[in-house]
Each structure stands twice: as C-alpha cells, then as structure tokens.
Amino acid sequence: MRLFLPSLGPACRAALLLTAWLVLGLNSASASHLVGGELTYKFLDGNGPSDRPYRYEITAQIYFSKEASSYAPDGTSNIIVTFYNKPPRPVLVATLDIPRSSFAEITAPTPPGCFQQEPRVTLARYVGIVELPVVANGYMAVFSASSRSPGIVNLLAPQSETMTLTVDMTPGTMRNSSPTFTDRAVVATCLGDNSFVLNNAYDADGDRLQYQFAQPMGAVATNSLGAPYIRYVDYARGYYWNAPFGTGGINTIDAITGLARYYSPTQGTFLLAIDVQEYRRINGQEVLLGTTRRDILLVVRACAGGVNTAPAFTPASVAQTYYQVQEGQSLGFDVTAFDTPGQPLTMNVSSALLDGPGGIDATLNGQVGAVAVGLPAGRVAVAGAGTLTGAFRLRAGCGLARATPYDVVVTVTDQACNSQSVVAVFRILVTRPGLAVSLSGESVLCAGATGTYRVVGPALAVYNWTVYGGRLVGPTNGATVQVKWTAGVPSRLTLRGTTPAGCFTDSVSYAVNVRPGPVVTGPLVYCRQRNTNLPYRIEGPQLAYQWSIANGTIVSGQGTNEVQVDISEGLTATLEVAGPGTCTRELRVGPDNTCLAFFNVITPNGDRQNDWFVIENVERHPKTALTIFNRWGRQIYQSADYQNTFGGENAGPGLHYYFCQLADGTVYKGWFEIIR
C-alpha cells in the first residue's frame, strides 16, 4: 500500500520533505535500531476548538533494540506522528509531537541451564492527544523513523530502511477506537521448529476483526510531482513480504483469530507485518472501518538440547472451542495440556474477560487476571509439571453482550532450552437473553384512537415499553398497556424485558397501521382578542362532516366541510371532525403568546392589582412605542420602548386613548379607562 498525497500545498510539501530528510538523514552510527511496533487510537470527544473539534488519544508502542550499538536503547524521548485526511484529496491536517510516557526492557528470561542469547528489547510507549478538523472520510495517522535493527536477514539493507507505521482513523461522526494487540511484537523461536505465534487483538467496540500478512512500509518519499508517498521496504533476494523466510519457509495466519504458524529453515532475525482490519455492520451492510498495521521481528535462534517434543492439548480440551452464553448465565470449561517428556509447563491464558478485580466476573483457576500497561487483555499464568489444567469460569454480567465473540487465548510452553509451545483460541459469544413472548392488540385503528396491548407468554421481572407514533396512557410498566396513536410515522410498539438477574432482554415489536383522519386547514393558534369566527376547512368532496369542540363553540357549518368556531379566551381548544366512513382528526388550538392584548381598565390605587396599563406579550416585541392621550387629545405619556410601566401618572379618572406602534410599523389604537 502506498499513501499518495497529491493535493498537498507547497508549505505542506516542504514540511513533509523536511521530515523525510530528518528521518532518512540519520546515519547508521546513530541508528535507533527499531525492532517493530504499532499505532492505535481512541476517540475521546468533540470538545476541541471550533476548527479542530475532534479529540483522539494516540498511542504508539515502539520496540527498540537494547544492544550496545543502538542509539536509543530505551527509546527516543519523543516521536512525531502526522495526520492526513483520507482520499480522494488527502492533505496534511495535523502534526503531533508525543513524549515518551514509559519504557521497559521486555527481554525474555533465559531458561535455567540454557546458553542461547535472547534478543534484548525495550518497549517504549508514547501517548498523546491530537485535535483534528471535520473531514468526510476519516484520517490516516503515520509514524516514520530511522532506522531498523541491523542484521535482519530478509531485508536488503536493514540499517538503511526506515520503519513506517500507520493506522486508519474513522471521522469524528463515527465514534470508534482501533483494535489493540493483546501481546508483544517481538518473538523468539528455535531453529527447525514449527512455531505457533498469536497476533490476536481486542476491539473495545465489538467490531469484527480480520487478520492478514502485509508488506512492511519503508521511508516517506516524493514522486515526480513532489507529492509525498510511503514506499515499501526492499527485500533481500529470495525473500518477499508473503514469503518472509524464503524458500522452504512457512508462514500462515488464521484470518479470524490471528494465530500464525512460522517455520524458518535458517537462523536469524526476520521482519514481518500484520494488518488487522476492523469491520462494522451499518444499515445492514458490513463496512470496513480501517486497518491497523503492526511490524513484528521474529528471532530464529539455535537452541541447545536437541529435538524437543512440543506439549499438546488433550483432545477433549479442544473438541469445542466456540461457546455461547446469555447475560446473567454462567459458563465454564477446562483446558488440559500435557508434555510427553514430563517437563515443567507454563500455561498463559489471555483475554479481555480476565480484566482483574471488579468489572467482568471471569477467572482461571480462581484468579481474576492482571492487565499489563499498554495491553487490553488480562493474563493468568499457571505452572505445573507433566500435565496442567486451567479451569476457565465466566458469569456473564449485564451489559457484556456484543455482536462479536470474546477470545480466550491459551498458550502452553514447556520449560526447556529448545522450548516449544502450543496455542488454542476459545471464542465466547455473549448475547442478550431472548424474549419468549409475543404482543397482541389492535393492529389497525384511526389516528387519535387508543389501543390496548397485552403480553402473551411468561411473566417478566420488569416491562420496558417504547412507542413510536403514539404515547402511552395510564400505567406504563405492566404486562398490559394502552397507547394513544397519532399518524405521520411508521407506528409500532416495542417491549424489552428485564430478567430476574437485572439484564435487559432482546426486544420484540408490534406494528400498527394508524389511519389518518381528514386533512383540516385552519389556524392552530389565536390571539386573545381575536378568538371568534376562526375558520376551519376540509378540502375534497362535500360530506356530512360532524364537528365538535372542547373549550369553544361551533358557530356555523356543522355537517359541512367548513365551520367557524369561537374559542374561550385564553384557553386551549380541542377540535375534532369525522366524516362518514373516515377516521377522526383532532386539532389542538391554543393562544398565541406573541399576540398583543391591551387591558382596558386600570385602578392605580397601590394594591398591585390593575395598577398599570398592561399590554400582554409586549416583552416579545422590543422597541414598541406607546403614546397615551386624555379625552381631550392632550398627550400625557410617551415611551419609545414600553415595558408595562404606566400607572396613571398625570392622568385623571375616565377614558384615555392609546397609540401603539411596533418596530415593524404595525399600529394598534384603542382606549382604556382609569378608575380611581
């Protein structure tokens, strides 16, 4: 894969070319001796600045050789990660300088009495937060640095090769976190052995993962047009990305679990790359969200002790490797391995289900597991000699269900100089409890009608009802409910139960055909002082429509397509109409709180009742001008922005007149009386 960026502007191209020069310009004397690694991300939120609202946590796990010639045996103090929006028009959108957050040597201990040298490796972690702009197709994060560890057999010039890692990132509108590998990226095996190595990853969002070998990436370069792209590494003669051990070598990978089998006929260190692709079902279609790239260094060394028989699982232990359990239920299985020579064995069991104290209730031989920094899965180790059994137990708590299985990875290794391992992957699908009930009730009715619905089947601990296209009326948490339906949306009633253990079940739905009544046109709001002779009409053929109204009166038109109604001042009226063979249509008509209403009496006696000349809703009309005149036409009050503050000042009792003008030029005239 090459990442072409043809639309970069001159400034961006210059920045990338400078980065490439800095990366490629490191000479071998100061080489970092990069061994492998991967980039991952986690969506945080949309609370960044307006031009870069989406915040992501970026984690880089980079493996460095700790040999004496390494420039950075404990990892560099910081790394640079660049971010591009995805094609069709990729451009550089951000650059992040991430400081090293931790480092630790992860060199495997040499078994007692053995003399082969294990490769010394440091794992450095870099964690930072980036703010990214809104884009349509997502982003690609890129880390590139020089140079790879010397002596890699299958590369043409390893110390001249840059290591580039990438991860596809979904846009902020599709919240997601990338899968995270559950084990380390440096592996040591014995010459001549068929080794099984797991490249399993865990996805916190429950997306489906698929594994495949990939071609490792090299340096960032530019094409003839000056657009940056990422090239592949150059393999030594006879080696390829899909044949990393050359003629006679074996490399296979299980696309579902990531379990790989390696065999190299020669000794040395070999570079491989693994891609894990992340798929999610969206609107009934499975969509590829992105790809996370991992570079791996496999060390094939000569081991003392001659031929060693690998441990094996008992046939009964691996007869079933796929399990399904509902939330609230328990699951258990035993895994037994044996070693024919009777050597000491270590069983390592890794799973996101073994998440330590609290959280998920899962154990192996009674141990809840421990989660190492930077790994998503917990681990339990069990030791023994000759024969070894691990008892896995899970109580699937509420909220554990998801669309894809959880992996439980069991690795058994014998303790010998030429140690061998056997690996098995058990998959556990956790589902919500099924709902063994159905619903009954009216399936066809008119809009505005109320239907009764009942649960048919076993009783549930709790009933959780949801209505689309209507509303529940009366009790809402029993086995029988009533729904008042409205028209305009696909209508249905959905029930989801709660088990005695407190877990939600799957849901069951009941579709309802809600027939609309006649279409009525007319005002849905009225002004307080214009509440009479409101017209309502039904288009279409003349029928004997029957009208009724609450909080009002049918003035004229009963039995026809058009009526006029009076509504009680200040109240909300319910107007209903039905014709022969049609459904009832209901309209609710309420007062308009933007209309002005002028009170016609004030009694300015200080009792705070009718003490001021009030224009109702005037606060909704800024800059309303009011002028008041006495009965002889003399102006006694004027305001450019009236706020209901005139209390009869400079005015005697009797009739007075007002002139009110809104900011839009609308004029109101009238009178009111002052009573003293």
Automatic annotation (TrEMBL):
What Pfam families does this protein map onto?
Answer: CHU_C, PKD_6
> Protein name, please?
Gliding motility-associated C-terminal domain-containing protein
Q: Which organism is it from?
A: Hymenobacter mellowenesis
Q: Where is the PKD-like domain?
A: 520-585
